[in-house]
Amino acid sequence: MKRLLAVIIILLLGLCTTQAVMAMDTTLFTDVSANGKPGLIDFEDTGDYIVMIQIRLRELGYFHFKATGRFQGMTRSSVIAFQQNQMDADGKAIISDGTIGQQSIDILFSSTAARSPIAQSIPYGPPASGSQKAVGELVEWNEVKSLLTEGNSYEIMDFNTGQVFEMVFVGGEQHAEMECKGANDTIIYKQVFGEEFNYSKRPMLLIMGEKKIACSLQGAPHGTDTVSSNDMSGHACLYFSGSKSHVGMLADIEHNNYILTAAGRA
User: Fold this and answer.
1) pTM for this structure?
2) Cβ distance 191 to 209 under 8 Å?
3) Surface-to-core class of residue 249, CB atoms within 10 Å of its CB (0-12 exposed, 13-18 middle, 19+ buried)
């Protein structure tokens, strides 16, 4: 009986200790994203969120390798290079220690993140200035998806310049995957992105009859190629309100900002 009582006491003490450690650990973490990804992201962390960080660093010109989902030496070096080139809201340099907390996340996924000096040499299209010819409606992706027919082409208007080109809807679950209908459409597509394919994003309007829908388009074709003879290898991602990335099912903050711009709300 005494032995059984001793075992019970030890188990209870172990449970209390475990709960105390868990409670202590949770105090070491803060939310670093709108979807509640916890913690200070550091060396040897793994997961879909790391993939998204690596892809974003690559878009900004700091990471030049395949996204692996593992936070190791090359990723850490890229993070440090990114941090050394960023300023906070007061114009002061942010901490560049290679770990990623709330401040770095906020800047990394903003449309104002400073690109690598090398990436800055890539054209990113005409600036958003002057009075636009039209603004679009904010329509949720699930509704837009129901309006699109795979294989059909749709007019896309560049919000900043008013140039119009056609793109074919080739699928997509979390956002639309689009390819230029023909070679002439690809010429216009490249013009609005600065005369060449690149990783920048731009506010756009999807034209469906009298309806114009706010959206944001990426300038770097990638992945599966469906439409032939259009001088465009792969598809481009077109985001709408409520669209998410393939990576970790997370929202893309930069796309979201441009969608609001296209709707006249930013």
Assistant:
1) 0.61
2) no
3) exposed
